[in-house]
Write a structure and sequence with these properties.
Protein name: RNase H type-1 domain-containing protein
InterPro entries: RNaseH-like_sf, RNaseH_domain, RNaseH_sf
Strand content: 5-15%
Shape: elongated
Strand order of the largest sheet: 6-5-8-7
Number of helices: 22
Helix content: 40-55%
Number of domains: 2
Pfam families: RNase_H
GO molecular function: nucleic acid binding; RNA-DNA hybrid ribonuclease activity
Structural class: alpha/beta
Organism: Rhizophagus irregularis
Largest sheet: 4 strands, mixed
Oligomer: single chain
Amino acid sequence: MGFGWILTSDLNLDVKFSGKTSDWSSSTKAEIFAILTCLIICPSNSHVTIFTDSQCAIDTFNSLHHYKMTPRRFQKINNNLLWQAILFIIKRLNLTIKFVKVQAHSGDRYNDMADTLAKAGCDTQDTITISPLAIKTQKGYIVFNDELIIDRNIRKTTKKIINFRNIERQLSHKSLHHIKDFTIDRLINWEYTQDWFNYNPFSKVTSQSYSKHVSWRMKCSNYALPTLDSLNRNYPDILKGFDTCFLCSSAQESNEHFWTCPESIKILKDIFMKHEIIYKAIIMNNLDHNKIDDSNNIIINCPVFSCFNLLITTISDAKDLHCILINMIPSSIIKPFQEAKIPKKLTKKLLLTFLFNLHRDIYEILWKTRNTHWKRYKIDHNITKTSFTKRPSQHYKRRRQNNSDISPNNPDNNNILNIGYTNPFMNSKRNLDDSIFWIYLTSSNFRHNLPWINSLYLDVIDSITYDQNLFYYNI
């Protein structure tokens, strides 16, 4: 990100500066760097007026002087090292600072000149950084991966990193290769998908209906529906090899086949044709008429619905449709909302409600149709609930294989339901390896927990380097 500033008190001096910064790049950080670099050149005991178009920078600066701004809260502010440096300069030079908000892109002469300098700063080769060792008021800092200083909320930052690692581990599983491929091809919008998995359409926070709905979402997304291939693997003594699809009676029933079965496609086509009318009505009824001159020019066709016009025999024939079926949100279903200039917040509200009604029909019409055949099969073969609960004793002695190895290269983990696989998002056991141990040290009370470090295993202690005063951690 580039930044720049110009001294306007005496234009004849032609004092201006531009540069660029990296790491945690944002427009606010660029504004903070501009403030920092301009204060450095100010004479002692000066009264400085800074004109900026960043309201966020102004609000953050004002909050630093609030009586509730404790040192602990200060460390949770984004770019806290830069703000520490700014406060240090102000105190050292005895400066009086006043901020004035300028409307961005409003034709202000000097603001436009600063924007031009910022753009020029992006083209420079050198990147400007600050050394935390020079900031005496900053007693500690954390470096990630030997290169990146974390100068923001530690818990939120580490949560993002751990989540990225967990999702990479999850998607690397062989059974989820379709989701990984969709992710690489950028078919899935993970922001909306996350909102969908957290969506609760029911009036109560917890209820049997909500739990049932969440179970459906989780099983679909993990290819863990109790199809006959999974039941045969887990209960071979009960089904005795029967794995023929109940709907088409010609192929092995599996999670992948269930969504591409010709009979399933027929049922899904009727469901999606019904909801396509609802989908288009939602967009037309909520489009922004102030920004859209002619509603007829809006393209609201979506591959999720139009794919039924062609033959569907494999998942690759209708990738966007398959994303919906496994409870992932494809970007293509969001695009018509964007073209209709519907606000993002309203888009999420409308789309999540629409998806809930869609999946409810899929569950009630398609899945229950399959389950009707399954219940009939159990009655014909005298299979009851106790048949699954009272199994031979040798099945209870099966141990989890390679409990610690959940990599896709492990042959015992070829299927997500295999014994030995552990979902990283559902694993309560946190192994203290080098890559996640630092989250323990960076909790909000990490400065008060130093004696706790000595109680850990020696091999874990050896993975940490710190100086004599224990203020700097490099993990």
